[in-house]
Design brief:
The longest helix has 21 residues. 80% of the residues lie in helices and 0% in strands. The N terminus is likely disordered. With 138 residues, the chain is mostly helical. The chain is built from seven helices and no strands.
Length: 138
């Protein structure tokens, strides 16, 4: 086989793999990718409001409209990350986690760009629920 043809074939194969992988959602990223979409929709809803608290409330309301879908994505991402042997722990986490803390942290960040207090509360909640449910966070 001609060297130029070999390089062209290899380049084409790499381009196809890269293009295909860009469209494949890793199961462990399902919750993250869904939250990105939810945050975008919520930001559009918040932009229609005036006043900081109204914007935050609109943002949270938008996120809450997809809460059950997000819980399922959290469960699936957890199992994909920790394995089926941790499915019970993932179910525990998915059901017991306080999503309102996460939603508020996202909303406050979008509206004020300063959500340090909310992030600290979110980190504490995540660690407490993960520990209670038996999910090792490293």
């Amino acid at each position: 086989m001609n060297f130029k043809l070999l390089i062209t074939a290899a380049t084409l194969a790499l381009a196809l793999v890269t293009s295909a992988s860009a469209k494949i959602e890793l199961p462990s990223m399902k919750a993250h990718n869904l939250m990105k979409k939810m945050n975008y929709a919520a930001s559009q809803a918040a932009k229609k409001e005036t006043g900081e608290e109204a914007k935050i409330n609109a943002f949270i309301k938008s996120l809450n409209s997809r809460l059950e879908e997000y819980k399922e994505a959290v469960m699936e991402s957890c199992v994909a990350s920790w394995g089926v042997e941790k499915a019970g722990a993932c179910s525990c986490f998915s059901e017991q986690f306080n999503y309102q803390l996460e939603f508020r942290a996202n909303a406050v960040y979008f509206v004020t760009d300063n959500n340090q207090k909310e992030l600290e509360a979110l980190a504490a909640e995540t660690n407490a629920v993960a520990q209670k449910c038996g999910i090792p966070l490293e």
